[in-house]
Amino acid sequence: MQVQAILYEPALFPDELYQRALLLLDPESSARIKRFYRREDACRTLIGRFLPRMLLHARGVALADMKFAATEAGKPYIASRSSASFTTTGVDPSIAYNVSHDNGLIAIVSSANTHNPPAFTIGVDVMKVRIPGRETFTSFVETVGDQLTTLERRLISSAANEQIGLERFFWMWTAKEAYTKALGLGLGFDFRRVEFDPALDVLRVDGFVPKGWKLSKFKVIHGADVYQGVVAEFVGGDDDAVVISELDPHEWLTVLNATSFIQSAIQQLT
Ligand SMILES: CC(C)(COP(=O)(O)OP(=O)(O)OC[C@H]1O[C@@H](n2cnc3c(N)ncnc32)[C@H](O)[C@@H]1OP(=O)(O)O)[C@@H](O)C(=O)NCCC(=O)NCCS
């Protein structure tokens, strides 16, 4: 399993680079990107589209031969020989991946997961640790409270201080998102069914620790900005879900800067 995280700073990302990059994408991606009102939203999705393309490039696939598709619920995947109408040749073994973006971070997880093709059971979610807009910590937790379990609410309210409470909340939230994204269900899944205890690092679904799952927590710190992320992957087997702490060595995580990533991607893909 590998995670690539791209740090995006709007002021350092030239418009000319955005325009050149857009020209390389397929019509569907480029139409979706152009629909965004805010250039920052467009750039995040643009960078998110280049990430799986660079995975394919590393496997020797030419840009013109890269084909992507999405499940009915919208989970994107690399179209392979097994899918009916799309083909990306030369991807053997297949690549399982998922993308997430928030504020100044875009992340992709990729692995050789083979469970539930074609989109595979892998998901990632990243979020900037912050209290949005004009909320206070208490009002923010109240707003999202109905998506949390009783234990989760207690773990937040009993935290030694707001910073720890906020951090706990973001581990819970990114774990719930990553798990549902792994299933490919997106918003169509009740978040209260997934419970994550970030104090003891225990995942429960419908009250039980699920078997065969692996959750990997990571942090990306950029100046004053802190991002928390979780990868959820069904790895199979009969063992209870394991949780990799953000404090463990993360040789699987690389962090790059958006401008140099896109510059180099354009160069390599053309
Ligand atoms: C998947 C979803 C929960 C992600 O929400 P999020 O946490 O705000 O966003 P993230 O940045 O973590 O993830 C977005 C990425 O997840 C991927 N994604 C989209 N749908 C997905 C799904 N069903 N499962 C897993 N991943 C999905 C895409 O790569 C997407 O990137 P893009 O929008 O730039 O193409 C949400 O977009 C969703 O439920 N989408 C599917 C349903 C939908 O679109 N409903 C709208 C009409 S009801």
UniProtKB/TrEMBL annotation:
It is an enzyme of class 2 (transferase). Keywords: Transferase. GO terms for biological process: lysine biosynthetic process via aminoadipic acid. Gene3D superfamilies: 4'-phosphopantetheinyl transferase domain. Residues 122-198 form the 4'-phosphopantetheinyl transferase domain. One of its GO terms (cellular component) is cytosol. Its EC number is 2.7.8.7. This is holo-[acyl-carrier-protein] synthase. It comes from Mycena venus. The lineage of its organism: Eukaryota, Fungi, Dikarya, Basidiomycota, Agaricomycotina.
